[in-house]
Every structure is written in structure tokens, then in C-alpha cells.
Amino acid sequence: MITLIIDGQKITVPEGTSVLDAAKKLEIPIPTLCHHPKLSPYGGCRLCIVEIKGMARPVTSCTTPVNEGMEVTTTSPYIERLRRTVLDLLLTDHPNDCMVCEKAGDCTLQELAYFYGLRELRFQGEKRIYTKRDGNPFIERDTEKCILCGKCVRICDEIQGVGAIDFAYRGFKAKICPPHEKDLDCEFCGQCVAVCPTGALTGKMWALKGRQKDIREIDTICPYCGCGCNLTLHVRRNKVIRVSSKEDTVNEGWLCAKGRFSYGFINSPERLTKPLIRIAPKESSEFGVRSSGLNSSLVTRHTSHFKEVSWDEALDYVAERLRDIKEKHSPDAIGALASARCTNEENYLFQKFMRAVIGTNNIDHCARY
Amino acid sequence: MAGLATVFGSGAMTNSIPEIENNDVLFVIGSNTTETHPIIGLRMKKAVRKGAKLIVADPRKINLVKFAHLWLQQRPGSDVALLNSMMHVILREALEDKEFIEQQTEGFEDLRGTLEEFTPEVGEKITGVPKEKIIEAALLYGNAKKPGIYYTMGITQHTHGTDNVYAIANLALMTGNLGKESAGVNPLRGQNNVQGSTDMGCIPNQYPGYQRVDLAKIKEKFEKAWSVKLSDKIGLTATEMTEAAYEERLKAMFIMGENPVLSDPDINHTIKALKNLEFLVVQDIFLTETAELADVILPAASFAEKDGTFTNTERRVQRVRKAVIPQGEAKEDSWIILELSKRLGYDMKYNFIEEVFQEIGSLWPAVAGITYGRIEKWGLQWPCPTSNHPGTPYLFKGGFPRGKGAFSVVKYRPSEELPDAEYPFVLSTGRQLFQYHTGSMTRRIDAINAVAPEAYVELNPEDAKKLGVSDGQKVRVSSRRGEIVLKAWVSERPSKGMVFIPFHFKEASANVLTNTALDPICKIPELKVCAVRLEPATK
Q: Which of A258, A278, A339 sits opposite B256 (nearest CB)?
């Protein structure tokens, strides 16, 4: 264990801990743009600089391991001036379009510019001009907003194990892109989007649906595979407009393309919204596997084969038919499939209904598929 | 699950997801984890980064192989032979855990004798895996301190699926790799609440909490709790219901949020069976292929429109919360069930949804300690019997629920329908990364459809050359049950003689081709092996 002093406070941490992490334990905030606790330290943004007694120049706290007896100063007029200059330089080459940016209100760069009061920029210089032209359906890449913090590159390599993007070119021309500057073609997990500190990476389907300040966040569980990832649904006007995940969860905040981007079915116009009772005999209908598009004839199918009824009418009818069949044949002439999509409570009630009300153990679900 | 329940007395993942990263050896067999359980896949990759050795046994060169130290490309359906010869090596090298076998298991001597014939040479002959690799895998697993085994439907969807599970359990039992952190046997459940549906007794032979319907004492307990007479006759499984409907023994079905038309083997057969019913009710969020056959369709609320709990693959009960108001007149499934129940003269009264969960806890002690308040932020893993119990990350610490862990003698038995001159390829079906199950949710997402627009058949380059098929060309795939036309994806992923089709796409549904042959014990269909023929389609 190593003991050091940060801003006059003593702390003891394991060997190998970074000064940044040690400060975090003391709840001393140090601004960063390129640091992520689950990724290797990078030292790229230079915002986390601190002064260490005995060292000639400020050092990046994310890449400096603690030493016995170290005396660290995390804030001083000098340090803050340097940080302000770093931000100033970043903003000099950043589109000044927060008013239309998806990320506004949820943007680390914007937040820092606010706290450092960077209304007017001191420097004037060339700006990088890039056209948005990535044709992938999930991830909007706005390279002009990229500050080259490299979080996306590291997460794709270190966590996802995919390595779909990397730094290309050098100096002013440096940028992050897929090989040969092609369109992104990856697993579309969106981990990169989740860690991007600016508006450089956003979800394409999020565009113009509402910004962070307008939404309600509701924590729930993913409806897809069995991993049980924790989701935060971002809701605006009774619509789920975005999905994210918190870091301290069983899935560590990571999601896949389904969990992160496949929420659109919730508010789909194709949802069933009224009880339906069949009006056309089954023999006359076309059934089964359609060769054309997914919902080619949904509307006609609705109107020509089924009629919309009230809940009372539908439920009375179902109850009557189930009672008749039970009496005419036996409870065991009725079977039921429960759903791995539904909650425990619903599944419990469903099997209770079949066993206690219908009187049969003919209940199963899709565990075998 | 039936397999594991027989061996240990409980059928579920023995360990939890966070434990994966502390394995020193991971043995992944019959699980395309990075595509079917992407976030568990991430934990496996993390384990590898932390120094674990990964063994992947899969007939396809799945993405996980990229991270593996050893890849065993067994022939589809030959898992028992692979596992048995690994165990042969473990015994030959005396790597078994004698103390564990002695104290915590039974039936070992019976098993030992039957493994003698499964030399690595025999294993190689049946599985096609070089014997050196079988030996290496056995030594890696046998010498490991905390090895975890992970499997999914690649193991279970066979007519000998239960045998496969027994063989896996044998391997873990003989090396004493159960009842401790990270080491264990882990079936990864494929759907958000498939563990929960099973836990809740949506199975024909058990009430909630794996309590048998044919035991008088248990029946009495539920009769008392529910104030009604109950049947002790074991019901029909899903696959048996289809048969019974086909033969018109079953007259009515009530299907809540399932789409058997696309998910069950042999689609044409399923459609016929459902059409034979006098009365079919389907309760769903979309007009699925199954709903199209219904007499009444009830619009249900989606997961985002209700409160309750899901139980994930590691037995963790987690809170589901209502985020939006149901679309149109759609209603929570619980409301629908209660309304129907009332109309049929049985009034179930609950003031709020947690009361249902409390009732479950009163009937199944393993979740009695779980309340919504306790799982506000982090879910709890059952067993969690009391309100101060921290939940159970890994099972069988200090013993098995059935007393002793049971070894089972497992003989290698080939799959039901093997390739022949007429149908020379083996077909396996499964999922791919972007689409989900029968696609009723994901296929309504434009972005997903842009990257995974249509069905395809994965085909080895050598086979493609022989057939005169090039990448992207349409091929006709036929089996004894039907035929479909779809695009060829010529790729090194499948082994020679094997093809793979994802089952998400209704316009070229893999389940037109698959075989309805069932595992005799747990009635799972053999979706991973059937014989097919391929030919270039004219158009």
C-alpha cells in the first residue's frame, strides 16, 4: 500500500493506482475527456494534469502511478489556466453548433466549456472540414466534433475485441475511421457511442427525437436474450427515444445492437391496439409463410379476416368458448403456451389460470427452442 | 434443464456472469456466445484478456474462435463422443478429483468402465477432431483450478440432448468443478425470461419452484393456497401439444407471447396442427404468424409498458419498470388473465403486482427473501430464502439439493436423421447477432433490417465449388419436409458437409426443413441436425 497526500488530504491506496483514481477516492474532481475507468489510461486530453512536488512540470494524473509520500496539487491558478488553454484549443477547432447538436446537455466538452466560461476563444486557426458520409444505419459519425480522445478506439479493441476503428493520418489531419475510410461495418454494439464525450458519435435513430433535458429515464431490463442487461429507457412524450445502460450493473454498462438500438418495436405503428375476433373462416384465408415483405398486407388482413371488438366482447367470448370446450371435452383438451417475453408475475398468473381455473397441467413455453 | 435437474437436483446456471472473468479455463461447447449472448461474450473475452485459456468446441468457426486457445471442430451431433474421450484422457492421466467423487457423488464406478472404449483415437474417428486436440483440451480442463463450462442449444437441441448434458455434468463432477466460485456448469438461457417462465411453473410437470404436480403432498399445498382442486396428471409439453392438436385430441389453445409457427420444427406441420384447433386465442404485441391463425387476438402490453420482474440466465431476479403507457387499447398480460379468470368464476384479487410476487415467495422458498424493495438497484439471485439472505451467486456450495451428484452412463448415439446420398448435407439452425428469434420485434427495426435483411445459408467454400454456387447466389435447400430458396453465404465458418441457416426469416424459414424428432426425456426437437440437399436455384 502506498500513502500520499492530495490537496492536503492523506490517502492510502494499492501500489499501481493512478493519481487520478486516488483523487477520485477522496472525491476530488479532476476534469478528463479521454479517461474511462474500464479502459487503459491514455493521457491524450491533458486536462487531468496535476502538480506534484519535486516535479518540474505538471503531469497527467491518469497515467502517473502513485508513489510513497507524493504530494499532489490538483488545482491552482496555474493548472486551471493550462486546462483552460487546452479547452480553448479544442474549441477553436470544434463546430460551434451546440444549439442543434444531439449531445447538447449531455456533452462533457460543453459542460467543461461552461464551467471554464469559454465564451470567447483566444485562438484563430484552420478548422477541420469533413463531410458526414457514413452509410451505416446505426451510428452517426461527425468527425468534425471528434477531439481524438481515443475512447472509441480503445473500447472497440479492449472491451468488444473487434477493432473496427483506429487513428489514421497524423497531426492536423489525424482522424478516427474504419479501415480505408470505408463505412463502419461492425457489430454495431454502440459501446463507442456510449463513451464518446462529444457529439462526434451518436445514434442515427436518436436524431431530432429529443435531447437529454427533455427526457424521463426509467431503469428496466432488456427484452432480448437471457443476459439480463440493465437498460435505461429514455422517454419523451410516451415514446422511447433512446436506450442507454449504467456502469454499475451486471452488464457493466455494455450493450449489444439489439439492447441499444432495437427498441423501435415498442412504439411501432404495427402494434396490435384492439382486441380482434375472426370473421372469415380459416379455410378461406391465406396462412403461413408469406414470400413478400414482412407486413405486406397487414391492414387488409386485419379488416378482411378479423373485426375489432371491445375488451368486454373479446373476453366474454374467450371465456365462453373455453368453458364450452372444457365442459364438452375435458380440461385436458385445452393447452397453453406461456411466454419467455413476459414477466415472472404474468407467467405465474398464467399457469395458475390454467391449473386452477381451467384445471389442466397442459402448460409449457419455449424453453426448448 | 431436465438433464441438470436429474444430476444435481436443480437445473440452472451454477455460476453467475461476473464470475466468468475469473475462470482459468473456459470450455464453451455448442454456444455461439458472442452472437447469442453478446454481453456474456464480453465477459469471456475479458477472462481471456486476464489470462484464462478458452476452449471452443463448435462445428462452425464462430467469432469466439478468434479468442480461443483451442478450437475443436466436432461433427454436428458428436458431442457425447468428444466429451467421453476427454473424460477418458482425464482418467488415464489421473486428473479426477477422488475426494470429491468419494464424498459428493454416486455412480462413478459404473461410468468409469464405459469410458474405457472412448480413447482419443475413437473420439477422433467419431468427432473428426484430431486426437491431439482432444488430449490437449482434456489436459487443459483437467488441470484447471476454476474451469467453467458454458453451453446453449448446440448441446440441447438434439435427440440425444439430455445425454449431451449428462456428459457435461459427468465431466464437471469427476473433476470436482462444482460448488465453488467460477467453476461449474452453465447453460446460457436464450431469452430474457425463459429462466423465469420455467421457475414460475410454466412447464407441464411442475408447479412454481420445480415442485412436481404428481406428488400428492405438493398438490395439496397448492390446492390449499389456491383454494381449488388440482389435477395430478402431468400435462403436455409444447411439442406434444402440437402433435395433440394435429391429431385433434387437443381442442383449444391459449398462446401468450409465443410464435410457434416460426420457432417450432416443421412449419407446415405446425400450421396444420393449429388450424385443426376448434379455438385458438393468441395474446401478443404484434400480428404474428401464429396470431394469423387465431380465433381471437388480444393486444398485449410490451415489456416497456408494465411493472414486474424478469429472471436472467444466472437466476438473477431483476425489476422491470413501466416506462410508457400501452399503445392503443393494449393491456398488461396480467390484467387480461385476471379478467378472464373472473369471467370463468375464479376471482384472483391482487391490489398491486408485487402481491403476485409475494404469493410466489410463499409457495417457493427460494425466492421468499426477494422483495421489490431489495431489488430496486441490483437484482438478487435465487436461492434467496430470507429477507436478509444475500442471494446465491453460485450453487451447490457444500452439497447438492438431491444429496449426491449423480454420474450418468452416456452412450454415443448418432443423430436421428443423418446425411445420405439424397440429402448429403447436415443442417444446423440458430440465431445470428442482429435478428432475434422469430423476428417479430427486430424485423420491425429498419436499422436492423439494413444490416441483416434476409435469410442466408452458410456454406463451406469447397462445398460451394462442388455445387457450382458462388457467394450471394440463390440456392434451393430441401429436406424431407420442405424446401426454401435463399442466398448462399460462402464462408469458412461451417465445416465441409455442414450448412447453417438462421431461423429468424419467415420468407425462407429454416424450420420448413427441420426435423420434429424429439429427445425422449426433455422433448426438445433436434433442430441442430437434419439432412438437406442444396442446388443452385434457377433464378
A: A339
